[in-house]
Design brief:
mainly beta, 52% strand, Neuraminidase, 372 residues
Length: 372
C-alpha cells in the first residue's frame, strides 16, 4: 500500500511545497553566492585526505577526461564510465577490464547515459541508448541481464540510482497540452528485475515555438540515507508557471518519506536576472553533511565558476575555474566532483606528464575525503 501511494504523495507534496503552503521559494533557506568573488580555495581547507591513483594506459583503457560521466569506487575496484565505454581499474590503477562492448546485441550498447551500483551484491546497472536498455553486470564484468526499458518506461532515461533494493530512473518525454509542446520529466521506480513499481511526473519544460524555454539536466545523488534531486533551469523569465505548477529556480530538493521537498536555494545577485534574461546557468548543486557545492556559468563574462559553502562556518567561496590542489602541488586549478553515491568523498582527474613519457599517459585519479 505504501508503494502504491508513492506517486500521489509526491505530486501532493510538490504542490504543497512548490506552489502554495509550507515552503514557497521566498521561504527557503538561502545561501548567498558572491558572483564578484574569485578566490583560490585550497583543498587542504576542506579535505581530510587525498590519494592519487595513476590509471594504467593500455590499448583498451585509453581515457578521454572530456567524456567521463561517472566514477564509482567499490572495494578494490574503480569503475569509470565514458560516453561509449565502461572501464574497471583496481585501487593501484592497474587496468582490469572493460564492461560490455559496442553493438546492438545482448550485453552490447553504443552510447551510455548513466551508471549506478548495488554495493551489497556488487552489481552495476547501466542505462544505454541506441539501443535503449537497462543492463546489469557484476563488478567483474559478467553480463547478468538486460531489458528494453520502453516496455515499462515512457521517454528517454537520463539518470539512474540504486537504493534499498530499487532503481530510481529519471526520464524525459515529449508531450503536448493546451499550453503547447513541453518535455515532461518523470521519476520511475523499478525493482531489481526491471519491473515497474510506481512513477510520478515531477516537472514540465515548455517550448516557445521551436525554442525550449527551460533546458534541464536532472541530477540524482545520495548523501547519507537521503536522496537528493536537482534540476537545472536555464530560462528567461524569473519564474515559469503553468496552472498550479511552479518551478523553483536554483533549488535543491530532497526525497523524504516519499515526498519531494525543496531544501535550500542558492541566492545570486538580482536572482541571476539582468534585463529580463537569466545570466546565471547553474549546472549542479550537491551537498555533503557539511558542505554545499555547485558549479555555474556566468553568461555575461563567459566564465565558469565553482562554489563551496561551509555550513559549519557559514563561509562561502566562489572560484573561477576550480580549486587549488596545495596537497599534490598541481599547478592549475582542479574541478572536483562529489561521488553521486557518497558525497562525503570527491574526485578529480589530472594528466601528469613525466620527462621520459613518449606518449601522453592516462590521467591520474585523485580521490579525496571531506572534513566533517
Amino acid at each position: 500500500m505504501k508503494r502504491n501511494c508513492f506517486c500521489m504523495m509526491i505530486i501532493v507534496a510538490f504542490m504543497l511545497f512548490s506552489c502554495s503552503n509550507e515552503r514557497k521559494q521566498g521561504d527557503l533557506p538561502e545561501i548567498p553566492v558572491d558572483i564578484d568573488q574569485n578566490i583560490s580555495l585550497a583543498l587542504s581547507e576542506i579535505a581530510e585526505e587525498i590519494i592519487a591513483i595513476e590509471l594504467e594506459l593500455t590499448d583498451q583503457s585509453l581515457i578521454n577526461t572530456d567524456y567521463i560521466k561517472y566514477v564509482i569506487i567499490s572495494g578494490d575496484n574503480i569503475v569509470i564510465q565514458e560516453s561509449t565505454k565502461t572501464l574497471v581499474f583496481n585501487m593501484t590503477g592497474k587496468f582490469v577490464q572493460s564492461i560490455g562492448s559496442k553493438g546492438q546485441g545482448t550485453g552490447e550498447y553504443n552510447f551510455l547515459s548513466s551508471l549506478t551500483i548495488d554495493e551489497q551484491n556488487k552489481r552495476l546497472y547501466i542505462i544505454t541508448s541506441s539501443p535503449d536498455k537497462i543492463m546489469c553486470y557484476d563488478i567483474y564484468g559478467k553480463f547478468l541481464k538486460e531489458s528494453f526499458y520502453h516496455s515499462v518506461i515512457s521517454g528517454t532515461a537520463s539518470e539512474i540510482i540504486y537504493i534499498d533494493g530499487e532503481l530510481l530512473i529519471i526520464c524525459q518525454s515529449p508531450c503536448e497540452d493546451k499550453n503547447g509542446l513541453f518535455k515532461s520529466s518523470t521519476v520511475y521506480r523499478l525493482d531489481e528485475n526491471f519491473r515497474l513499481i510506481d512513477s510520478c511526473s515531477i516537472r514540465n519544460d515548455y517550448f516557445e515555438g521551436v525554442r525550449l524555454i527551460e533546458q534541464t539536466q536532472d541530477v540524482l545523488f545520495q548523501e547519507g540515507s537521503s536522496i537528493y534531486f536537482y534540476y537545472r533551469e536555464v530560462y528567461k523569465a524569473p519564474q515559469f508557471c503553468s496552472g498550479k505548477e511552479v518551478v523553483l529556480r536554483d533549488t535543491l530538493y530532497r526525497f523524504e518519506k516519499n515526498r519531494l521537498i525543496p531544501e535550500l536555494k542558492l541566492k545570486f545577485k538580482n536572482d541571476g536576472i539582468s534585463g529580463g534574461n537569466k545570466f546565471i546557468d547553474l549546472y549542479s548543486i550537491y551537498r555533503s553533511s557539511r558542505y554545499i557545492f555547485s558549479n555555474y556559468e556566468h553568461n555575461l563574462n563567459k566564465n565558469k565558476y565553482y562554489f563551496c559553502y561551509d555550513t559549519k562556518t557559514g563561509k562561502g567561496n566562489n572560484m573561477q575555474d576550480g580549486y587549488t590542489d596545495d596537497i599534490n602541488g598541481i599547478d592549475i586549478r582542479v574541478k572536483i566532483r562529489p561521488f553521486n553515491l557518497d558525497t562525503e568523498m570527491f574526485y578529480y582527474l589530472h594528466t601528469n606528464m613525466k620527462p621520459d613519457d613518449l606518449v601522453e599517459p592516462n590521467p591520474t585519479l585523485y580521490v579525496g575525503r571531506l572534513k566533517k
